[in-house]
Amino acid sequence: MFWKRFTSLCLTCLFLMAFVLPLRSSATDATDEMDALIKAYNRPTAVMVYNMDGTMLYSYNAATKMSGASLIKLPYCYYVCAQLENGFSSLDATMTYTEKWYHSGSGIIYKGAYGEVYTVAQLLDYALRYSDNVAYDMLVEIFGMDGFNAMVKRWGFSDIYIGNQTLRFPLLPANFVCESMRRFVIRSDDGGPWELAWDALCHSKDTYVRAVLGDENTPVAVKYGNIPKVWHEACYIGSDSPYILILMSSATNYVPDVTYLQNVAACAGRINEEHAAEVRALVPPETTEAPTETVETPTEPTEIPTETEEITTEPTEPVESPQFGDVIADGSIDAVDAQAVLQAAANLGAGREIELPAEQLLRGDLNGNSLPDAEDAALLLQYAAYSGAGGSESLTDFLAGLS
User: Fold this and answer.
1) Contact yes or no for 223/234 (Cβ under 8 A)
2) Distance, CA of 182 to CA of 390 (rounded, Å)
């Protein structure tokens, strides 16, 4: 799915700016309808509608922190997938459920018997499919908090982190949740842990808005968050014009306002449809040239060869995807990668075309700000020097150790 990889840097800038200033493509009927829904709700809420082409279609209270509940499991499971991809632990590693890990609330593990053994694959699946609290706690035990907090800081959210006990479920703004889902979408077809996690999100339980957002032909990935007096849903809708909806809401008497949730979800779909129609209107219609007559000229007869040479092709070896940091995809992370990122940063600063494709930019985005800059190049040089001196840590672990 090439569109997942294709994100222009200018549009990404707009995405980051939208965290501070609400951006809309135009004043539309659906936008006015969303304004009216939020005004009538008259309780704390946050709504974001972000199209995967890089356009922020609607943003309300995007940077306002609310009780995030289980939405934190979305970015943490992204971190787990990245760690697994880089060789830390494995999907087959196991952990035993004991009384120490009992954690009531959402999930299914706590309802089972002590002594049950679970694989990391199961924990990752349960944390996203059932929002399982025990699975989340066990994953944090295995993969830790420091690396996750460093990753979030590189994304540009230095005031968001997890810690022990109550800090395991921090306050979160909608823009952070949107960025978490956006990054998951980009990696969703990369196989391994990414495929497992994405399948869990596409079949997650306890959602009020999935039925409103899609059908059997439109995949909808959802991560919900719920504690008394709040209900949140972070959604990706894989329509012809794919988009993300972040909906954070307050509940009255511990009961979510399902009508509000579903009305906002339906309105978000209409906002996105209006945007898609605007984009289609900007595309010039295809033109076809009238066929031209060709005049055949007689040619000299040619001799028919008596023997034909059989052409055979050797089977090619499967090509592995380049690793994170290997910008030019030559199998190593070195100064050449840093030079490529630095050149892209210089082009961006001078207003010229960046030239590096989006997939290469993503591999070189070490500080997580979605832009090529000198910091990315410096980090690549540091890692190249480290590995050149015999260091064996993966780039992800190396970056975590710098924070």
Assistant:
1) yes
2) 35
